[in-house]
Design brief:
The complex is a heterodimer of chains A (216) and B (228).
Chain A lengths: L1 H14 L2 H28 L2 H16 L2 H15 L4 H27 L2 H9 L4 H31 L11 H12 L2 H29 L5
Helix pairs in contact in A: 1-8, 1-9, 2-3, 2-5, 2-7, 3-5, 4-5, 5-7, 6-7, 7-9, 8-9
Chain B lengths: L2 H48 L2 H15 L3 H11 L9 H27 L2 H9 L4 H31 L11 H12 L2 H30 L10
Helix pairs in contact in B: 1-2, 1-4, 1-6, 1-7, 1-8, 2-4, 3-4, 4-6, 5-6, 6-8, 7-8
Classes of the chains: A mainly alpha (216), B mainly alpha (228).
Chain lengths: 216, 228
Amino acid sequence: MEFVQKLVTTFNFIVQGLWVTLGVTAVALAVGLLLGISMAVLRVYGNPFWRTVAALYSVLVRAVPVIVIVFVLFFVIAGFVNLSPFLAGSLALGVASGAYQSEIFRGAFQAVLPGQMVAARAIGMSRRQAIQSILLPQALRLALPGWGNEATLVLKDSTLVFVVGVPEILRRAQQVSARTLEPFVAFGIALLLYLALTLWMTQLLQWVERRYRLQI
Amino acid sequence: MDEKMERVVELFGAVAPLLWQGTGVTLQIAALSLLLGMAIGLPAGIARVYGPRWLQQATGTYVVLVQGTPLLIQLFLVYYGLPDLGLTLGRLEAAFLTLGLNSGAYQAEYLRGALQAVPVGQMTAARALGMSQGQAVRSIVLPQALRLVLPAWSNEVVAMLKYTAVVFLIAVPDLMGQAKILASRYFAPIPIYLIVAVFYIVLVGITYGVLRQLERRLRVPGLTGEPT
């Protein structure tokens, strides 16, 4: 009985990090989405200069471990503005995710049939208009399966902001294990909590995918 | 050369030997974990496709458990948690075990995909010749699947190089571990982590190039799954 009570107390302490974990994931995914789409557009439709910039961002960021990116950007951001660890950490994670997302969206833009652009231009749209209202909506749907993968990866990578002191699930597990001196229980609970989160997120993404699948 | 540039060069000279040492540790951990992952992933992948039902379920659970949870929590559970159960591991052992178990699940999944991509007719034909299922898997299906799994496997090698970077959080003196010590010694986190980033870019770049070369050399024209 005492053991069950201890389990419940430990769980209650760790689960308070749930919203922080979801918050970090949401901010990082949103930042990554903005960066990823813009970089993909620049890489596919931009002039040679912007193509090179977008390609360099994607190749260099993806060659470096996400945790190194988080460290570098955390200190860089801290040198310019006074952001909370939560915002700085999520932002850094988002910049890393943006590189991976740019590859997903690049593939999606390239998979849209070339005739779509020609047809849009032929009915008098500007290039910008054509990208915005004809190509982007199709590319977004094509990108969904790959993006879903990346979303669960970011959810798991959100543990990395633990190093800059954000009180998410892992940080809280570590705190409670220092108090109860039972790290196996604490980290075990954190592990299972994450398992539930990723399984739930996979379900959610599959539902979204089915809902928005392109009927070709 | 302006003064700032000079200071960076001076700093690089001071930190390079220790970072070089850390690179050795990083490479060692990545290589051994990949081998451990292969030792686990190869049988697990085969069991997932051809094993009895209970074994398929067991390996399936292993894969979901590993792929559904963050590496960092797995690492802490192994290093800080297992002593509670009476199994105390050193830092390096904990790093090998966690990364190996983690990579094993991913390698098993890649192999499963490759095994399933070999046309069913191959198995049928082998059985029709009088081979047992084990024989057919060993000498007909697996050799084809291993060629097919190569691109996914080289991605896993590059991913592993990057994943090793978290082991400094249990105080393993890898590239990142040395960087953390140096950053606080010289009070210069940004340049030092940037130098580390360059180290990783070079490591990943070389590995990627070597693997592409290997893939090209081992390619079999007309093999299943490739456009002919």
